[in-house]
Amino acid sequence: MAQTSDGTFTHVRGELAWTIAEHRSPTDAIAMVEHLDAADEGRFELLGLTDGCETALFWDHVFRRVVETGFDADGVDDLRDLGDEEIEQYAGRREALNAADLEAWDLVHPRNQWLLKRRRLEG
């Protein structure tokens, strides 16, 4: 998320903090949002949170794939550590989100919530 004083980004950070506080630690929610915010730029774009807000899902613009990573009040796990996992590539972020079960996510990032709303209207 871009660093700005724009009310939209304040709202996004607030929504992330509220959701994390509901699922994990109200005390650490702000610190966790700060780390997610710092990781959400350049190569990686935050898509949402799953697994009781234990896992953050990022879009990797370089490899065109979804990256799952843990996070806590101390930081976000290394997003560049690809390990030996099988990499499922997509044509783009929209295709990856269309393939995802967004209803099961704890939070869909507000910049992607339009897709969830469209599915509800079509469904």
Task: Describe it.
With 123 residues, the protein is an alpha+beta fold. It is built from four helices and five strands; from the N terminus they run ααββββαβα. It has a five-stranded antiparallel beta sheet with strand order 4-3-2-1-5. β1 (44-50) and β2 (55-60) form a beta hairpin. α1 (7-23) packs across α2. The longest helix is centred in the N-terminal third of the chain and has 17 residues, at 7-23. The radius of gyration is 14 Å and the shape is globular. The N and C termini lie far apart (30 Å). Residues 1-6 have low confidence and may be disordered.
- Helix fraction, binned, reads 25-40%
Write down the overall mean pLDDT.
85
Strand content: 15-25%
Report on the biggest sheet: 5 strands, antiparallel
The spatial strand order of the largest sheet comes to 4-3-2-1-5
* Rough outline: globular
H/I helix tally: 4
Number of strand elements: 5
Structural class by sheet pairing and helices = alpha+beta
Radius of gyration: 14 Å
**Spatial gap, N to C terminus:** 30 Å
**Spans of at least 5 consecutive residues with low confidence:** 1-6
